[in-house]
Every structure is written in C-alpha cells, then in structure tokens.
Specification:
The structure is a homodimer of 257-residue chains.
Chain A lengths: L7 E5 L3 H11 L4 E6 L3 H11 L2 E3 L10 E4 L6 H7 L5 E4 L16 E6 L15 E5 L2 H14 L3 E3 L2 H31 L8 H11 L11 H4 L2 H10 L4 H17 L2
Parallel strand pairs in A: 1-2, 1-4, 2-3, 4-5, 5-6, 7-8
Antiparallel strand pairs in A: 6-7
Chain lengths: 257, 257
C-alpha cells in the first residue's frame, strides 16, 4: 500500500500549455480547482471544458497545493510581482529563471514541458518534463506531481533548461517551418506530400541509433553540382525555397568538407 | 496459382543506392547476376557481400532482363553513351530525365527510391519507389519488378520525380543538417539530445493528421522577443547556430504574420 499525494491545483494562464496541462491533470486523482486568466472570457472557455471554476488574476483561489503559471514569458514578471501564495508555485517557461518566482512563495520552481503543446489536439503526446525548485524538498514535491502526469521527469537547472529549449526550437520549430514550406510546394505543384512520410520517419528512426552527422545524404554532401543546379532552376519560381536551398547547400558542403 | 517473373538483374554502380538495392534484390527470387563498377576493387567488395560476380563497366553481362544503373548523376551520361543492352534499363536518379537512356535499350525507364539509403545500415527502411518507362509495356515490367522489392510503387514522370526529389532534399537533407548541428550543440553543452526524441516524433506524427502550417509553436510564431533575445545571447558562442536562428525566426514571423 502507498499513499498518493492528491494535490489541489490552480492553473494560471489560458494558452496552449495551460490547456494541455489542464487535460493532463484531469486524468489524474489531483483536483484542478481553478483556471485563472487575464481575460475572463478565455479562462471561462478553458475552465468550462475542464469543468472547473474560472477567475481573473486578482481572484486566485488561495488554498491550493500547486500553482502552475503557464503564461507568455513577457507576462510572467507582472504576475510574479503581484501574486503570492502558500502552496508551491511553478512556471512552465523554458527560457526564464526559476528565481523570477522567488517572492511569490517559499516553495517555487519550474515544470517545463519539453514538447510542442497545442490546445486543439485531441491526443496528448508523450511529454518529458524538466523540473527545478528552490530547495531539495520543493524539487521532490514537484517531482512527485510531475510523475503523476508524465513517465519522463528530469531535474534540470535554469542553464540546462535553456539549452534544451534552444535545441527544441531547432528540432521542432525550424523543422516544422521546413515541413510547412515543403508541404505548400507539394500542394502548389499538385504532388503527394505523403509520399515523403517514410523518408521522414527514417530520418527520425536513425537518430536513435546513429549520430545524424554520419547519416547525411543527398546532392549537397555529394557535391553533385548538376543536380543542385537543376533543383535551383526548378525552384526559380519559389524565391524563398531557393534561398533556403542555397543556404543549406552551402552549410552542408562546409560541414562535411 | 500465379507465375512470378524471375528476372536476371545486373546492378551498375557501387554506391549507397547500389548496395541497398543489391540487398533488397537478394531477398527476392530474382537472380542478381553481377555488380559492375568503374573501380573494380569497389565492385568486388560489394559483389562479395552479395555473393555475385564483379566486373568493370566494359564487361557487363549481356543477357540480363533488368539493368539498374545506380551511379552519380554526373557519371550517367558517359554510361548512357557507351552501354547498350537488350533487357530493360533503368536509372535511379531523382533529377535526371529517363530520356538519357533512350539509346541504351528499346525498353528504358527509371526506378527511383524516395528514401535516404545508406550502405552501412543493417536494416533496410521502407522505400517508396517512383517508376517511369518509355512505353506502357516497359512501365508495366518495371512496376512488376519494383513491387517485388517494395510495397509502395507509384508511376511518376520526370517532372513529378524532380519535384519529389526537391521536396526530399528539404525534408531529409536539410532536416538532417538541423539535427546534426543541434546534436553537436547538445554534446558540447553536455546535455542529453535524446530528451528531444518525443518532440521530434510528435512533429512527424502530427504531419499525418494536420497541415504543418497549423502546427507551428515556439517563440518566433508567438513573436516572443524576450525569449528570442535570450536564446541569441546564449548562442553568441555558436555563430552558425545564431545565423540559422535569426534566419528561421525572420522566416517564421513572415510566414505567420
């Protein structure tokens, strides 16, 4: 037998991270008490879907065990100045120090989801959490909570989290931009983007076994000037793709020289 | 009952595509007769691993049903000039017209693997093939052959193949470069790149359900200048990453303006 520490939780924020966390918490025994947002209509919308109370920032429920501030980085300083609580308080930002919350509560820290979260997706992806706290005790409490919503929880300080946030921008945001413009290209050219799925899956599968540095293929690393020339000729009506093509081709040639 | 058209096959070339195709063919009832290369030591090496005969370009077995020319795009014109055969001849290039083989044989075409192929990998990935031929009959024969080595075979003309080749460069070569420099960054900063696998997998999984244009997240699309500034400060010792970061951030802001 063991005792599960059921926590009363308040979410502050109404964006993608707040929405996905509220879904995750509802599938645990924890009690989501309230969703607080700057804009009451947004908090009401999210709170209704979660079946909990909505409030504005100036009426946050005082008796919770865990306050999760999931707002834009730029909104954090203001909340950190005006909000005070007795429970543990965490923010969910990759690039903000935990110390921004030093005056909010005696127990403060970070609960950072290393995943791209979108409110509008029915399925919740697997989310590794990077956590941190001001004391060992706070870290332990945040860890217990994080483990109830994810099977992958690591302790990471401000620096460590910042590095992984930067890496995440490269492997998610930048890759997704490449996928977006390639998908647009396929649509315009009436060709089937889904034919590329096996190639994409292979790219990711290999990563787990080999360093990407030994997996590079294609015209740039072969220095296949004829193919590169033909591709660029073809892309002459796509200036943004051409520019990217030249940029990456030069980079790849330089890297594997 | 049905009859399986067992073909005698010759592979011309000794690179990654030739090596993987020779593996694929050996797992079918087809008979791989010979591997021909410009450099006899390279053909011997590949032929030995395939348990078949090795030869140079000037001693190619004349009686095969299918000749697969898997050489660099730049080497294709020379072979196309000097080589003649009675069987069907195909090349494996994404950006070269099938017409380059018009004088090689009466039946000519293309067998293009839309996948990143590497000789040094034990596992053969799923490979969609784009095929083409000079007549309906040739296409049908190439299709029968292609279907014995892959479950996904589509007919695609020179234009169609060129477009998908370009798209493949973006989604494999350029993405793999992003993965390479991010992996290098994580190594130098002693942080665990594998923590990013769930994020990467999610990026690809979502593609099958949603357009990437509605899946973009991160500081650039949020126009979160504070985080962007912090990331760039952090990357000041990584000029190549900084340049990429600024390039993509500007692009993402422009795209989702």
């Amino acid at each position: 037998m063991y005792y599960f520490a059921v926590m009363n939780v308040v979410i502050i924020g109404t964006g993608n991270v707040a929405a996905v966390l509220s879904k995750m918490i509802r599938s645990t025994p924890h009690r989501l008490m309230q969703i607080a947002g700057r804009d009451i209509s947004k908090s009401k919308l999210l709170a209704a879907s979660a079946g909990v109370e909505a409030s504005t920032f100036d009426n946050i429920y005082p008796g919770a065990d865990m306050y999760i501030i999931a707002v834009a980085d730029t909104a954090l300083p203001e909340i950190a100045k005006t909000f005070h609580c007795k429970g543990i308080v965490v923010h969910t930002a990759g690039a903000v120090s935990k110390e921004i919350l030093a005056n909010v509560s005696d127990g403060y820290g970070v609960l950072y989801p290393l995943q791209s979260l979108r409110a509008n997706l029915a399925d919740i992806p697997h989310v590794p959490f990077l956590i941190d706290g001001n004391t060992e005790e706070t870290i332990a409490k945040i860890a217990v909570f994080a483990k109830t919503i994810s099977s992958q929880v690591s302790v990471a300080n401000d620096d460590e989290r910042m590095k992984l946030h930067i890496a995440a921008v490269f492997v998610n945001n930048f890759i997704n931009y490449l996928l977006t413009i390639t998908n647009d290209f396929c649509k315009k050219e009436k060709t089937d983007f889904s034919l590329l799925y096996p190639l994409l899956e292979e790219t990711i599968t290999r990563l787990k076994m080999f360093s990407p540095a030994v997996m590079q293929t294609g015209p740039a690393i072969r220095n296949d000037k004829l193919t590169i020339h033909r591709h660029l000729q073809w892309l002459s009506n796509y200036p943004e793709m051409s520019e990217l093509y030249e940029f990456f081709t030069e980079r790849i040639r330089g890297y594997w020289r």
